[in-house]
Automatic annotation (TrEMBL):
SMART domains: DUF1693 (SM01153). It is an enzyme of class 2 (transferase). It catalyses: RNA(n) + ATP = RNA(n)-3'-adenine ribonucleotide + diphosphate. This is polynucleotide adenylyltransferase.
Length: 411
């Protein structure tokens, strides 16, 4: 009897924990979600391929249709468990204050029981892009390979113990939101910090679009459920509203978590538990250098992160401060490197910070010159310690991926 009672209590506790992860969205949150789903996204094509302009809700429906269609009809023949909005867009929907976001992250729950399913997913996405080509575009010579080169910026496949998922990123134009399509069977780690742990289940909203002719209003809107994979929805929402940094099992965070952590710092987030932050920083530094051990990889990762996450005038001004935060964290919390390796990385961050500072100063001086209409432009550098400092622009050449299919996951 005691054993049975213990089993019942365990089930009850598990159900209670599961319920803590979920919350029903308010009308205001559903309205913001509807605005996001109605947003027209631009997927820019390389070369002569046209820009695809499509509402996010329509893109989701087209991709799901391709995934679930029979293979005889050009589909993947797969079942989609659910569709979720993730990342910064989900935080924007749930937050009481405006939360800017760079990407539109979507999660499709599918099954990767066979390795062939990864290629089926890729074919379904490319088939969706083919269907979304504007009228008047000749489709005779367009192949799946050319569509991939034109519209796909990144593809990642993960298939190991506890992790079976893939990522296909559409669009790579600066200043525009990229669309990240993630197809997940199982994933051990779905978040870095509590403030980015939110997932909004879209199925009820998509069903509402299909069944209702009336628009969403305060008295007529679907029930939409959100989940925090951090564990406690209300606690994670409190962290988001108060700009607090918190996580669980920091040893599982991938190398990119260090860069995300410093991004939160520069945007005035602060640790929820200051007494534990040094341990968290050591974990993140160690994982960063495990995933990016070579100085060339570190440079490429940092330059790519700066390019993708600091877009627009307001974000651009934060670049230098961001690199200062990163330098301080690496200097204080790196315990896994030899002295010369540590100095090498710190020098890299310091040089990038100087480049950013010089570029910002150059832009400011050129702006002043244009406003004052001076006859001669000021020197394109910054005057420091009695001499002009000039930015050294990166000449790193990113490898061509024309013949590549999937990238390894290291972020």
């Amino acid at each position: 009897m005691d054993a049975g009672g213990g089993d019942v209590l365990g089930v009850v506790a598990k159900d209670a924990e599961s319920q803590q992860r979920l919350a029903v969205l308010s009308y205001e949150q559903v309205r913001r979600l509807n605005d996001v789903m109605d947003e027209v996204v631009c997927i820019h094509g390389r070369g002569n391929f046209p820009t695809l302009e499509v509402r996010l809700r329509d893109l989701v429906s087209v991709v799901r249709g391709k995934l679930e269609a029979d293979t005889a009809n050009g589909g993947a023949g797969m079942k989609v468990r659910d569709i979720r909005l993730n990342g910064g867009a989900a935080s924007h929907v749930l937050a009481t204050e405006s939360q800017p976001y760079n990407d539109l992250d979507l999660i499709f729950g599918v099954e990767f029981s066979s390795g062939r399913n990864y290629d089926r997913v890729k074919s379904a996405v490319l088939g969706s892009l083919f269907d979304l080509l504007p009228d008047g575009v000749s489709r005779k010579r367009i192949t799946t390979c050319s569509l991939k080169e034109a519209y796909v910026s990144k593809m990642v496949k993960v298939n190991n113990d506890g992790d079976r998922w893939s990522l296909i990123s559409l669009g790579n134009s600066r200043g525009y939101k990229n669309v990240e399509l993630k197809f997940v069977d199982t994933m051990r780690r779905q978040f870095e910090f509590s403030v980015d742990s939110f997932q909004i289940i879209l199925d009820s909203l998509l069903l509402f679009y299909n069944c209702s002719e009336l628009p969403i209003s305060e008295n007529f809107y679907p029930t939409v459920v959100g989940e925090s994979v951090y564990g406690d929805f209300q606690e994670a929402l409190y962290h988001l509203q108060k700009k607090l940094i918190s996580t669980r099992h920091p040893e599982e965070i991938r190398g990119g978590g260090l860069l995300k952590y410093c991004n939160l710092l520069v945007k005035n987030y602060r640790p929820a538990r200051p007494d534990c932050i040094k341990t968290l920083q050591r974990y993140m530094c160690s994982r960063f250098f495990i995933d990016f051990p070579d100085i060339g990889q570190q440079r490429a990762k940092l330059e790519n992160y700066l390019w993708n996450h600091f877009v627009g005038p307001e974000e651009e001004t934060l670049k230098h401060q961001y690199l200062v935060h990163l330098h301080d964290v690496v200097e204080e919390s790196t315990v896994c490197l030899m002295g010369h390796e540590r100095r090498q990385t710190l020098t890299l961050i310091n040089n990038l910070a100087w480049q950013v500072l010089c570029q910002q100063d150059q832009q400011r001086l050129m702006s002043q010159h244009q406003q004052q209409q001076q006859p001669q432009p000021p020197p394109p550098g910054t005057f420091v310690y009695g001499c002009y400092m000039y930015p050294v622009l990166s000449t790193y050449n990113y490898p061509c991926t024309c013949n590549a299919t999937w990238m390894p996951c290291s972020t």
